[in-house]
């Protein structure tokens, strides 16, 4: 099986030079040419949306409308993983410094550029892109998968603790989708790990939370400390610094009221923190017995606590209408299903909490209880087919 050629974007207002560069790179890379930097940025934005962003961008310095430094600075915002190479015939130090600072330039090439020098630079740029994306895959897939497996296991061991976390995670995904927000790896992991601190709560408090019952003043204070406990558990874990920050800020108000001095506010708050606060408060209102319309009215009465765009998105696509609810036996459970109502044993013990996704572990746990007679009857599930989120915040 042949390995696909890396994609390159070449930008220069001299068509003859572009075609010469493409001839040099023939058989080495799949090349897209642009003589207009603005058109190049439009093409790049679409390529990112289509998940076919170029491995490297080679751009001339002197061009009308936008110079190379400006073009690569904007390209860096659109496609940060694409390696950027500046092709220039000038030796202006100020322009070079600006290009490095604003565009994150990987390498300079001077014009005219010998073919062997161009090929070597492109090879190095493609290798740099490979290293960056390999680390990204490690974070997004390996780390996320490990965290998911950990929380699934903890959820099976103590459903009461993590049922709320599962519900909040589903609300975050729904609100993000309505707001057109892409759930990046760090955002998803922050949502999953923000509830680790629940393990510090006494069982009676967990039971009250799960049933939406009023808390005493001391119990409410314990619950309010959960994000800080979660943040302490995550402190110092390599590569999880953004997750730690989001979890630590997840109970701060958007308007900054009552926040400690120096705390971030408004859009300075991590997106994951803003989503977490909104989803957690919405879940608490729903768990207390309010209908979703009533819960949203309650949240809007204290609108300064939440990101206004996310709060508006929370009212879109919600409610119970159109849900595909079914009663099924354990043998009929599938991964496309979500547990819609708490599954309890014949003794009243919670086995699987509502909102939990059906996994192999969930099926095995329920099968064991069915075989020993502690689980009878069918299970209420929702058949789901959630679309992938693809737009960037």
Description:
- The protein is built from 15 helices and 10 strands.
- The chain is of the alpha/beta class and 393 residues long.
- The chain folds into 3 domains: 7-133, Response regulator (Rossmann fold, 3-Layer(aba) Sandwich), CATH 3.40.50; 158-321, Hypothetical protein af1432 (Orthogonal Bundle), CATH 1.10.3210.10; 322-386, Molybdopterin biosynthesis moea protein, domain 2, CATH 3.90.105.
- A 5-stranded parallel β-sheet has the order 2-1-3-4-5, sandwiched between helices. Strands 6-10-7 form a 3-stranded antiparallel β-sheet, with no helix packed on it.
- 35% of the residues are buried.
Summary?
With 393 residues, the protein is α/β, with parallel strands linked by helices. It has 15 helices and ten strands.
> Can you tell me the number of structural domains?
3
Uncertain stretches of 5 or more adjacent residues: 386-393
What is the H-and-E element order? EHEHEHEHEHHHHHHHHHHEEEEHE
CATH class of the largest domain: Mainly Alpha
Total E-strand runs: 10
Main sheet: strand order: 2-1-3-4-5
Instruction: Tell me the structural class.
Output: alpha/beta
Outline the biggest β-sheet: 5 strands, parallel
Mean pLDDT: 82
Radius of gyration: 26 Å
Write out the CATH superfamily name of the largest domain. Hypothetical protein af1432
Give the overall shape, derived from the CA principal axes.
elongated
- Which bin fits the share of residues in helices? 40-55%
CATH architecture of the largest domain: Orthogonal Bundle
- How much of the sequence lies in strands comes to 5-15%
Please name the CATH topology of the largest domain.
Hypothetical protein af1432
Distance between the termini: 36 Å
Number of helices: 15
